[in-house]
Amino acid sequence: MKNPTSEQAAELLSKVCSKRNIPGASLGVMIDGEIVAQATFGLAHAGTGLPVSEDTIFHAGSVGKVYTATVVMTFVDEGKLDLDAPVKSYIKDFELADSRATESVTIRQLLTHTSDIDGDALDEEGKYGRGDDCLERYVADMKNLPMIAEPGNLWSYCNSGYLLLGRLIEVVAGTTFENAMFQRLFQPLGLSKTFYFPEQVLPYSVAVGHLPNPGGTPTVSPVWAFNRAAHPAGGNLSTTMAEFLAFGRLHLDGGVAPDGTRILSEESVRAMQTPAAACPEPELLGDQWGLGWFLRTQAGPTIVAHDGNTFGQTAGLRLVPDRNAAVGIMTNLGGQNYAFMDIAHELIDPWLDTKTPGKPKTSGPASPGDADRFLGVYEKLGSRIRVSFKDGVLHATLEPTGAQAQMQETKPKPRSLQTVSEDRFLVPIEEIGEEMPLTFLRPDATNKPQYVHMGGRAFPRVE
Predict the structure, then answer these.
(1) CA-wise closest residue to 385 among 445, 336, 449
(2) pLDDT band at residue 139, thresholds of 50, 70 and 90?
(3) Are residues 255 and 354 in the same domain?
(4) Is residue 198 part of a domain?
């Protein structure tokens, strides 16, 4: 198939955004280091009517974790970090609630989300301030974080692990996280419109987030920025489509910038794209996780990717190394990961012969004969899943806990599950108009699962 054109990209983007009520979006396609198609849609700000342009800056969100991982690997290249060394050997005052985990959690486990630290806190309340010591203060407070399991036992997405990596970068670099990112990545790669701080983006066209409103018009998010401590996990990383794809190109070109500057070794590029941990949500994310990237390896050429969600914005970067191609998507509506699946099925798969998975197929309401084994409460910091049996069908009640619970205005209601397989179901998320996989794991001697996996996170059974 011929390379997509900007006209084709624009037609597809308009179709997907209109179908999903997305206010604004940007789509870029790169092949052999050149952007061959670029398209925009709609408004950067529905309140002001500012249109999206090719230079509009969007949040990259958690795609920023790969930027953080890239800089970590530059220190590995220089022999200043050992992936399999305990983090404690570099950050002497690092401490978790579990003393054994404190001594054993490694850098590799943080990069691959297998540290099993129960941590998704991104300093929503601004507790650690905006000073240069915010990450140091955050890490000092990690002594209160429990474990989901022993390190290396389960794959569970962990924002706190990447904040810890940000502090590791500061300790090894001897400067702030943002300075180290600029010096080691942004500057040598020529990223002049990639920022962390809100005031840096003010001179430019900037997208604001919008919140889904089922049956109505999306509303502008009242919050645009995370607090500073969240930066290493992708909080506030903002960029244009051209620079988003330029970062992807670095990982397609073996770690070399367009001007010939080597930023990352070929060995580290390969290591980041090598499967290191199995992921139980292959449709939403990937079937494997590398050092920073998620990977889709089950059919067709391997897809190397990451998604990001922030305050009403969703971004995604897809690389196909075997085809030397990259596709970037940025939208200003929250929870739009499945929109990228639509674009992949219509644009990327026919073009590159990739096999992007679709939504899991269901066989009807979840009414298994052994329903009792699933019943119970599964909980991690910040959220709880209560599984019950009602009217002959399994239900899941998704409950925020802690500060999030105080912000919720309505009482959570049970949501009926649909069967995918013996231990997998779909739960409706009306807030974003989608269904999400719910996977039960690790049955005990009585066949009762000890974990449920949803949204990239493992929830241990507590009842």
Answers:
(1) 449
(2) very high
(3) yes
(4) yes
